[in-house]
Specification:
7-stranded mixed sheet; Aspartate Aminotransferase, domain 2; globular; 425 residues; 36% helix; alpha/beta; 4-stranded mixed sheet; single chain
């Protein structure tokens, strides 16, 4: 029997045949080929063990190697791996999953449409919002407002909503009708000179943008309860209540992007519950299957669902794998784990303990500007000057240096240039 190929040998084959997400030749030159996952650890082809500091991509929330999920997939695949869920067809796992999500999601959300991941979920909500406003006799309401540092995926429409500029240049021009307001980032958003609430001032940026675009043209505002890939940025306590008021005032749908925060990552099953706010639409993915198979979806408020079902015009939006029976079966098994092991409760307790340890260890470091987080999501922002909050110059290559240093110490995670992101199992 031939010996398993080394990391270097496998990586050479990789270079010859694979194009990766966020592909960049130099960034992949010393990549790792992962061959095993176990609990909170990943192992490469040379047998080196690394702490999986970001649950891969914020999604392996129940840990690697969960046999329950493999068993659920195998059982369903033996019975019926796939069938179409287009109108006129359905399957038990999809029906059971939608039924099970209703009581654990926001109280006004009881209908669900399934996708293969977060980007598809963003596109689905953008299209659903357009459909809804057309059905309500307001077809001019098509514009989308999002936030700087917001991440909503990189399909074409989702990329236009994403407020991280590095994702744009090679794919311009973007679709018209997308705009961005400043992040509420408590570390960087300016404190009002009159001493009033920073959170209210940041939320009022939405009202300014709606008025600039014209309220009659704005369809939806999309926001992550905690901005994830943009640097783990929790909002102020009063931010989202004011956002909800503004959306109601100007007839703008509030879309909660809970692709990262959904299913317990922040200490609540869904993260807007921290703020006592309900969205009109919610989108999810990642932790619903603990990353084991691709599945995402959107949750739809009762009023919007009633409008869709009452329309004489079909909602001509479809994915081949929507309501995939195998992925839905795995999601049901994942929900069993989330509830049985109280992953939201664990995230709340362990996340706060970890945050306090990070503060104790790093707050006095001369280049750590801010340590922040909510639940099992943390961000450590590195600055050149703590007094001015100035970042290192782009040419310094801080992100690459941080990633290399962390890997050398056995921690595999992602870095947003100057922010180390932390979201372990």
């Amino acid at each position: 029997m031939n010996a398993p190929l080394s990391n270097a040998a496998l990586l050479e084959k990789d270079h010859q045949h694979l194009i990766h997400p966020l592909h960049h030749t130099s960034g992949h030159a010393n990549g790792r080929v992962w061959v095993k996952g176990e609990g909170s650890y990943l192992f490469d082809a040379d047998g080196n063990r690394f702490i999986d500091g970001l649950s891969c991509l914020w999604n392996v929330s129940a840990g690697h190697g969960r046999e329950e999920l493999a068993d659920a997939a195998a059982k369903q695949m033996r019975e019926m791996a796939f069938c179409s869920s287009y109108a006129g067809g359905s399957n038990r796992p999809a029906i059971e999953l939608a039924e099970r999500l209703a009581p654990i999601c926001y109280s006004q959300i009881n209908n669900f449409y399934f996708t293969s991941g977060g980007g598809e979920s963003t596109d689905s909500n953008i299209k659903l919002a357009r459909f809804y406003w057309k059905a309500k006799g307001k077809p001019e309401k098509t514009k989308v407002i999002a936030r700087v540092w917001g991440y909503h995926g990189v399909t074409l429409a989702a990329m236009c909503a994403t407020g991280i500029q590095s994702y744009w240049p090679m794919f311009e021009p973007r679709i018209p009708g997308f705009s961005h307001i400043p992040s509420p980032d408590p570390y960087h958003y300016p404190m009002p000179a009159d001493g009033s609430s920073q959170g209210i001032a940041a939320a009022n940026e939405l009202e300014k943008e709606i008025l600039k675009q014209g309220p009659e043209t704005v369809s939806m505002f999309i926001a992550e309860p905690v901005q994830g890939a943009g640097g783990v940025i929790p909002a102020q306590d009063d931010y989202f209540k004011r956002i909800r008021e503004i959306c109601d005032q100007y007839e703008v749908l509030l879309v909660a992007d809970e692709v990262i925060t959904g299913f317990g990552r922040t200490g609540k099953m869904f993260a807007l519950d921290h703020y006592g706010v309900q969205p009109d639409l919610v989108q999810f993915a990642k932790s619903i299957t603990s990353g084991s198979v691709p599945l995402g979806g959107i949750g739809i408020s009762d009023e919007i669902a009633e409008t869709v079902t009452a329309s004489k015009t079909p909602w001509m939006h479809a994915y081949t794998y929507s309501g995939h029976p195998t992925t839905c079966a795995v999601a049901l098994a994942t929900l069993d784990i989330i509830e049985k092991e109280d992953l939201p409760g664990q995230a709340a307790t362990n996340g706060e303990a970890m945050l306090q340890k990070l503060h104790a260890a790093l707050d006095d470091h001369p280049h750590v500007g801010n340590v922040r987080g909510q639940g099992m999501m943390h961000g450590i922002e590195i600055v050149k000057d703590k007094g001015t909050k100035e970042w290192f110059e782009p040419g310094f290559g801080l992100g690459g240096k941080l990633t290399k240093a962390l890997m050398a110490r056995g921690l595999y995670t992602r870095v947003r240039s100057e922010v180390i992101c932390n979201a372990p199992h």
